[in-house]
Design goal:
mainly alpha, 170 residues, disordered N terminus, 5 helices
Length: 170
């Protein structure tokens, strides 16, 4: 797609594969790093993170992704392609904002849990606690957030998304 005007970036019908590739790699890397950090408190920490991550991701795909304009197309993370396979029934974009707000809370809890577990492990002197892994995880989260801001101007949902940095009036 071309530009609408010189001040407005193009909105992707499907995000380019190169964007999906680096964003999905960041997401999967962050999830794996979250597991590494969560394991610093032992198997219960890893199990708790695994359950929270599974619930958050599946709920998001089944509710928010189903109502997204990218359902069945390439969103910037590529998650919509997986969501369309798991939850093929398409929803409506009008239902997206409340579902996305709930999903953001679940995803924030999922991403914060390893930070809390890692800090707790360091504070308690757990033998597997690792400040370098915690810092690497925090940096990966920062990269996911920063690249989300880069994708927002090109997203078809930017006017409805509660996370969007590109809505009018913001």
């Amino acid at each position: 797609m071309g530009r609408v005007s010189s001040s407005q970036p193009c909105v992707y019908r499907s995000f380019p594969a190169r964007i999906v590739l680096y964003r999905a790699t960041l997401l999967v890397g962050s999830l794996v790093l979250g597991g590494v950090v969560s394991a610093s408190v032992g198997r219960p920490g890893l199990a708790a993170y695994g359950v929270v991550a599974l619930v958050a991701l599946l709920w998001t795909m089944g509710h928010a992704c189903r109502n997204c304009a990218y359902h069945g197309r390439r969103c910037d993370l590529g998650v919509s392609l997986v969501a369309a396979r798991l939850f093929p029934r398409r929803g409506t974009p009008r239902a997206f904002p409340p579902q996305a707000r709930a999903a953001l809370k679940l995803l924030a809890a999922m991403l914060a849990l390893p930070l809390a577990l890692g800090v707790g492990a360091l504070a308690s002197g757990a033998p597997r606690a690792s400040l370098p892994w915690l810092l690497i995880y925090a940096a990966a989260l920062g990269a996911v957030i920063a690249t989300t801001a880069i994708s927002c101007p090109h997203c078809a949902m930017r006017n409805l998304c509660p996370l969007s940095l590109c809505r009018p009036g913001r």
